[in-house]
Amino acid sequence: MQIFTENFKSSPYWWEKAPRPKIEIKKVTEKIDVAIIGSGYTGLCAALTLVKAGCEVVVFDAEDAGWGCSSRNGGQVSTSIKPGFRKLCGQFGEVAATKIIKEGQNSLNWLKNFIAREKIDCSFKVPGRFFAAHSQREFDRLAANLKAQPASLEVKAKLVTRAEQRKELGTDIYHGGAVFESHASLDPALYHSALLEKVLKAGVTIITNCRVKKIRKHNAEFSLDTQLGLFNANKVIVGTNGYTGQLTPWLSRRVIPIGSYMIATDVLDDDLINELMPTDRVISDTRKVVYYYRPSPDRRRIIFGGRVTTGEVDVKKSGALLRRDLIGIFPELKNVKVSHSWMGFVAYTFDELPHIGEYEGIHYAMGCCGSGVGMASYLGTRVAEQVLGRKEGDTAFDKLTFETRPFYTGKPWFLPATVAYYRWRDGTDQGNKTSVV
Ligand SMILES: Cc1cc2nc3c(=O)[nH]c(=O)nc-3n(C[C@H](O)[C@H](O)[C@H](O)COP(=O)(O)OP(=O)(O)OC[C@H]3O[C@@H](n4cnc5c(N)ncnc54)[C@H](O)[C@@H]3O)c2cc1C
Q1: Which of 23, 64, 241 maximizes ligand 1 atoms within 8 Å of its Cβ, making it the mutation to test the pocket?
Q2: Of 2, 206, 391, 429, which alpha carbon lies 20 to 30 A from 356's?
Q3: What is the tens place of the pLDDT at every residue in 349-377?
Q4: pLDDT at 1
Q5: Half-sphere CA count of 69, side-chain side, radius 13 A
Q6: Is 104 in the pocket of ligand 1 (CB under 6 A)?
Q7: Is residue 75 within 6 Å of ligand 1 at its C-beta?
């Protein structure tokens, strides 16, 4: 059977509604107050805050605007902190752990308020998340965690038993799960393009298809050597996340680029999608090598993502493997075709936490570990406030050490073995210490 539709595209489904933007470069002023590298959520949210404060801001991107993860993701908005509270307590102590978990909650609330305040039209809603337990042990762990939520960090959540599961999802493969009421969804590329329009209207210059090749510091100033020549700036923010390269070797040694893969199914019958996904909730599971999925905003397709191979692969191959795994969850989809298959690079960090700060005068925010719709937007805003010297820029991540490992220079040679190990562990029900709360 042909598994791809006739008009199959190896580009994100989201780009159908939000085609790649073409931006005319206006004349750049001699003096840039802040140069921003990367035009995803991080870069654009930073730019919006800075331009509103009266700064002359120029954003550079090596590709078109939002070409990175910010127009490719699953559009699931969570609290974005991967490690659970107990693990964080062990690492940083209870006070810092509480602040970190709260910062995740802040990022989600911040995004909700930002979208409402700025009247951003991007199919944003708060349907909640069904967090599906892939084993009985994970269900028991979820139940125990919900019962003993740490004081002051409680979130609205309800346990769903296996017997009740079909009210959430048309499958029996999971052992129940939990619904986290505050988690949200949006159309990621529409969110990005609305943000881009606002940033441009506010007076930010965006220079696309212009890779920054070198940053040099001269006393209190920076010069940026780019594909379109030299630019000088007083300050620099790096928001390159999973696309961080040798431009910033110190950062490159601290983020691990990992491919995340997605497919969109062909249009499904109303009855079928209503049976498989009776609600609009976003879905993810307790595996370490997680599957994440949801109905498309118009409820005509399923958008399904995950990591299906140990190394990086072509999107036709990943598309076929994701389809196989989707059918594993919903056998009713055995004849479904795939209309879009795509991927992007997320940035993991060695402590699985996002990082924000300054190194040798260059500001950065990155490392959202695959959960950056809310967090990258939030940290982009915070890093801009740090540049402006404002107290509001303080975050729970400021004092964390941004770790690297010996011999790591930005190419994750250990990834295939690590993914293979986690996949084995998921299969053997050894338990997962991450959290979505
Ligand atoms: C398939 C997929 C699914 C995902 N699903 C979700 C999800 O459901 N929920 C969620 O919260 N998160 C999700 N994420 C993660 C989320 O999309 C990212 O965390 C977030 O978009 C990061 O935004 P950013 O602005 O930091 O980086 P990006 O949007 O990746 O932007 C970085 C930009 O930097 C540019 N760049 C790099 N180097 C240079 C240079 N030298 N010069 C100029 N420009 C440069 C790149 O071209 C790129 O456009 C997903 C990611 C992927 C790939």
Answers
A1: 241
A2: 206
A3: 999 999 999 999 999 999 999 999 999 99
A4: 85
A5: 33
A6: no
A7: yes
Q: How far apart are CA 375 and CA 379, in angstroms?
A: 6
Task: Record the pTM.
Answer: 0.96
Q: Which of 73, 238, 246 to mutate to test the pocket of ligand 1 (most atoms within 8 A of CB)?
A: 73
Give per-residue pLDDT as tens, 135-147: 999 999 999 999 9
